[in-house]
Design goal:
alpha+beta; six-stranded antiparallel β-sheet; four-stranded antiparallel β-sheet; 1 helix; 10 strands; elongated
Amino acid sequence: MMGSNRKVPGKAFTLVEVLVAVGLLGLVATLAFGPLVALASRLEAIRDQYAEEAALSSALTGIAADCRQILPQGGDAPFRAIRREFLGGARKDVLLVWTGAPLPRKGPAATEVYSIVDPGPFREAVKPGLYRWTLPGVLASDVRLELLVPEKAQLVLKGVDRFLVRVFDGKDWVEDYSGPVPAGLSLEIGRKGVRVSLVDTLLSF
């Protein structure tokens, strides 16, 4: 007797089984995708914070570099630090230093002034941030801060809302100082809650 070549059909999946399988796959994908999204968000936040800290650190490094180029012909007070504290404890100090930093740019020795500027009456168009004034031939002791205007300054870093200066006078760290080149300088800068500090001992001569 000859055998039959007919194949027995396999068992077909029901619609319910297909829907259950699809649902399980979707659930697994959702469970796996959630942590990936959280991880990606965390990595992006870390990257943004690193970029913010790098920008703040770069600004402080530039300020310290200018301070190291103090010249001896700066009078009795080539270095000044002025504490300024505003409502809520916001620190927006002022740093003045007689420096030879402009010399490589073919400019004369000058006093450089670092301070935060915020928009206000008659200066609504001013971008908030840390500014630098370069005053050729003017000694630090002769600078009148009330005469400084943002239009004549260079924006060092926009959005800065904290600038704190401390000077080591040989005995203590002080926040108001006017005198010769100090033994050390401590700077802190902040923007949007991120703060970076720098202590420079290369000011000693």
